[in-house]
Amino acid sequence: MYYFKSVISTAVAVGLGVASTSVMAHDQDTHRMLPVRGIEFTATPAPVTAAEQQTAYSKSSVVVTLRNGEKKTFPLNYNVLYSSGDQIGDWKGGLIVDKSGAALGAMLDDAGNALTYGPFYARSPDANSLIVKGHELNLITHFEYDTETPSATDPNVMVDLYGQLPMVMNRAELKQARDGSLKVEELANVSMNAVNGLWIPCAGELTPWNTHIGGEEYEPDARTYANKPLTPMNRFLGTTGLTASQGGANPYHYGLATEVKLKSHDRTQVTKHYAMGRLANELAHILPDGRTAYKGDDGKDVILTMFVADHANDMSAGTLYAAQLDQVNGDNGGQFNLKWIKLGHASDTEIEAMVNSGIAFADIFETVSATVYAANPAAYAGFHPVYVYTGTDGTNSNKLYYLKVKPGMEKAAAFLETRRYAGYMGATAEFTKMEGETSNNADKKLYIAMSYVEKAMLAGANADRPRDDIRLNGDAKDLTCGIVYESNLKGGQKDTDGNMIHSHWVATDMAGLILGAKKPVGQPYGKYDSCDTDKMANPDNVKYSEALRTLFIGEDSGNHMNNFVWAYPVDSGKITRIATGRFGQEWTGLAAVDNLNGYSYILSNVQHPGATGDTAKYKPLMTADGVDYEAFRSAVDQRGAVGYFGALPAIQVVPHKSK
Fold first, then answer.
1. How do 182-190 and 148-150 pair as beta strands?
2. CA distance 137 to 118
3. How are strands ordered across the β-sheet holding 651-653?
4. pLDDT (tens digit, 9 = 90+) per residue, 449-463?
5. What is the pTM of this model?
């Protein structure tokens, strides 16, 4: 029997510039190294039947070809570890709790009336980090949101729960069997009490120092919530109906990168990193130096940031930068040079102290509308035009307005109002739906998922935005299907003030790598898709396997009825669909585990399957075809699921040196 603790070497053929791949495979029985020609992925066909459209599965395999032509095939089966509400030991998957750790019994409005009753089990598992400590395997998973539940007053009316409840992280203690399969032995809640709770966490990853880090997405607009209760987090804190100044939830405690350290199998330490800036965080992707991090900003009119920590493996203090793009070409997703504007330097401690002192939006900025400014510009000397996404429930969100930083408040602006301040300082704030980032460390490449490319990113669509850095050409119906961008990472770079950036992992450019496309006429499947069923659409989760030299892409698409996972080996440049999801599902929590005791895994979760908000657009289309939408949707398992593809043989990339 074979399994592979393999060595892959990638060489460039001398004089030809052609990449070739060779693999050495380990024969478990004879302990000899066998020559292998390469690896590839087989495709999962697009789902056609109702049963296929209602189920998450992979029909793909990894095919390893020996140099003598013999092939070994390993299936990419999808395995569920646990689902929302599953009881394992003393805990249930995704159970939503208050600050005491007790199950949230009811969702109250600001007057204390019940809108709906719990217990609630979040159906949107997202980021996964597999933490190995000695012989213990622990999977940290955070949950983004719950979907819907019957109203307290009318069970026939569903209450939309998106963003309305505090969220949770779970720790699953895993056992690995001899065949590589994984099983949950114990499930527990990770307490968020020390950090004022967790709100809408999205993507995340395992850090180089073996902790979990994830991003709180869609930061609450502090301008709005200065005079309005932040109700979802009041539900966690037990401060119903109170504003921040009255002792309720403070908006500046949310929209942050959140790190979890596993101190022992049942003890965790949770930290929110104020020094990394406050955004609609998709995640904080950390490079192998343990200092440089890039953060996706999920919204429209958003920014790209880079954080360089003072010390390796410690995100508690450092320097924050925002990108300014210089377009070279607007075709095929565009090509850009990147400059970096320094926003400031800070520590978690000093920024958190500002928040705890009661700082409010009005303490940081003076504001004036575009209309008022235009009537008398001379009266507003020192005000800068800003057009950015301002956060959840944002005041004047995605409109032109003018800001002036109050004396001495530059640091507060940079780290608590990062996007606004970046726009104020001249950073590019035209990105739309910037999602995950990941890196190919061997080749020093950064990959950025732009899920929907539209509005300010299109040529001639800048409206009254103060900058026009991104001007993409092409069919808007193609561009709205999304792009994965690639950047080169280098050292020796300076910021826009001419000061050295102390990192060897600075993104210097950005270009379209993988592009989606509109639905071609006559495609025989994916009838309700708006984007090409045989191409990636609306990339969200992206993770790179150094071992397989492969970029994995998970979709969050409203343009594919069934979302897919794609594999893109960077040497061949051939993208392959390797999994399809349940109706309405997003694929989340991607993570490549390259070698765990001789086996490898691709972690990925089933998020919000069958939810009304993600399927309602298909109801009139199905009804017109005589399909019973409600019956079709009710056949979908609407629980979230935490799972993985594999187990596969372990493979290890080793750069080849030509003679």
1. unpaired
2. 31
3. 71-75, 61-66, 33-41, 19-26, 6-12, 651-653
4. 999 999 999 999 999
5. 0.94
